[in-house]
Amino acid sequence: APVIVWFRRDLRLTDNHALAAAISSGRPVIALFILEQGNDGALPYGAAQAWWLHHSLSALSARLAAAGSRLVLRRGAALEVLQAILAETGACALYWNRRHDPDGISVDSAVKAALRASGIQASSFAGQLLHDPSRLKTGSGGPYKVFTPFWRALSDGGEPDTPIDAPSHIPGPEQFPHSERLEDWRLLPQKPDWASRFGETWTPGEAAAQEQLAAFVRQRLGRYGQARDFPGLDGTSRLSPHLAFGEISPAQAWHAARGAADGSDAEGVAVFRKELAWRDFSYHLLFHNPELATDNLDRRFDAFEWRDDAPMFDAWTRGMTGYPVVDAGMRELWTHGYMHNRVRMIVASFLIKDLMVHWRSGMSWFRDTLLDADPASNAASWQWVAGCGADAAPFFRIFNPTLQGEKFDPEGAYIKRHVPELSRVPAKYIHCPFKAPASVLQAAGVRLGSGYPGPIVDHASARSRALEAFSRIKASS
Ligand code: FAD
C-alpha cells in the first residue's frame, strides 16, 4: 500500500522531514496538496498569496516530476479530501510537517484523531520553525512574553538540525490518483490583473528561494546589520514569501548564514539569525495566545476609542496620505506584494496612531496584499506597533513620518521609486513636500492637491489626539 505526503506551507523537497520519512518507509509515495476551503468556499490565503501559491505549486509539481513523482491536487475540507483519497488509493499512512497557527492545529488534530481511529498511521514532523513553540519554556515553565530571554533560550538550545538533502528519486505507485487542474482553481487574478508586476520582483518556488538565499549570503549578509533599516538599499534577504510558503526552511536560512571563516561578517550573521528568531517568537506568541490574531493582548486597549474612518483608511490603502514615506510603502505593497520592514512600522504607526484606525483593519489589508502574509508575524507585528502586544513598543512612541523618512531614506531614493509624482522634488523636501516653497514645487512639476495630495492629517495634532485617547485608557485601568 502507498503512503501519502500532505504538502501545506512546506512546498519544498529539500529539508522536508515528512517527505524523507515517507520515502524511508520503502512504500510508494503520493504527494498531495489540498486547497483547503471553508464551508463558505473562502481560501485561507489573501489575494496576493493566491498568486504566489499558483506559481509555487507549479514549481513544486515540476520538481516532483523531475524526481519521478507527481503532485496530486484536490480541493475541499481537508478531512473529507483525505478520507476520499485514502479510500481510493488504499494508502496506509499519512505524513505531514506540523503547522503552528490555531486554525491549522485544529484541522490537523481532527485529522490525526479520525485517521488513527480508522487504523491509518498519521505522523507529523518539525521544520516550519527553528524550534517547536512548545519546547522553549521560561525558568518557571511558562511561555515567553519578552523577546530577549526567548532569543537567549533559543540560542542556548543549540543550532537547529542540519538540513537534509532533497531526494533524487521518489518512488511512486503504479497509478497515481486523479488530480484537479491547477488552472481550474483560478488562483491568479482575472481582469484587471493587479498582480501584473509581481513577476518583476519575485520568482516563487524552491529553486528560486535557494538562489535568493545564496545571493543574499554572498552579497549582502556582511552589511545586513547596517543596511537592513534603509528601504532605499537592497539590504535584506527578501526571503519572507519563500519562508511563508515553506519553499525554504528557516533551518536552511540559519545554516546558510554561518558567515565567512575569518568572521568578517559576524555581525551580519548574528543580526540576521536574530530576525529569523523573531519569526519563531511570533509563532511562540500565537501558539500560546491564540487570541493574538483577533484581540488586544493588553486588554486595556479594548476601551480605546478607535475611529471608524473609511475615507482615511482608503487614502492609506491607496498611498494617498500626503506623507511620502507612508505613500511609498503602501504603493510598494500594492505593486510588489511586499514592503520593507522599516516602512511597515511607519505605515502601521500612521494608521493606528495618526488616523486612530484599529490595527485589525491594517492587519487584514496586509493579509490580503502581502505575499509574505503570515498569521503569526502579521498579528504579532501589528500588536507590537499598536503597543497592545507582548514586549510591544509603548503606545506613546509615535513615529513622525517626516523624520523617519529623512533618517532612513535621506536621499529619497525609496520615495522616488514608488511615488513617481515626487521624483523631481529635491531631497530637502522629498519627505515634506507640504513644507516646500511654491517655486520649488512648481519647478518639480508638483501641485499639491491635484495629483499628489496634501497631508490628510496634521501629524502634530494627530499625535496629541492619539496621546489623549491613550491617557483615557490608562486612566481607566
Ligand atoms: P529580512 O530582514 O531579510 O529577515 C529575514 C527573515 O526574518 C524574514 O524573511 C522573516 O521571516 C524574519 N523576520 C524579519 N523581521 C521580522 C519581524 N519583525 N517579525 C517576524 N519575522 C521577521 N513578516 C512576515 O513574514 N509576514 C507578515 O505578515 C509580516 N507582517 C508584518 C506587519 C507589520 C506591521 C510589521 C511591522 C512587520 C511585519 N512582518 C511580517 C515582519 C517583517 O517586516 C518581514 O518579515 C520582513 O520585512 C521581510 O523581509 P525580508 O525577508 O527581506 O527580511
UniProtKB/TrEMBL annotation:
Keyword set, alphabetical order: Chromophore, FAD, Flavoprotein, Lyase
UniProt xrefs under InterPro entries: Crypto/Photolyase_FAD-like_sf, Crypto/Photolyase_N_sf, Cryptochr/Photolyase_FAD-bd, Cryptochrome/DNA_photolyase_1, DNA_photolyase_1_CS_C, DNA_photolyase_N, Rossmann-like_a/b/a_fold
PROSITE patterns (UniProt xref): DNA_PHOTOLYASES_1_1 (PS00394), DNA_PHOTOLYASES_1_2 (PS00691), PHR_CRY_ALPHA_BETA (PS51645)
Domain of life, per lineage: Bacteria
Domain called Photolyase/cryptochrome alpha/beta: residue spans: 1-130
This enzyme's EC code(s): 4.1.99.3
Swiss-Prot/TrEMBL cofactor(s): FAD; (6R)-5,10-methylene-5,6,7,8-tetrahydrofolate
Gene Ontology molecular-function annotations: deoxyribodipyrimidine photo-lyase activity
Similarity comment: Belongs to the DNA photolyase family.
This protein's name: Cryptochrome/photolyase family protein
Naturally occurring in which organism (per UniProt): Mycoplana ramosa
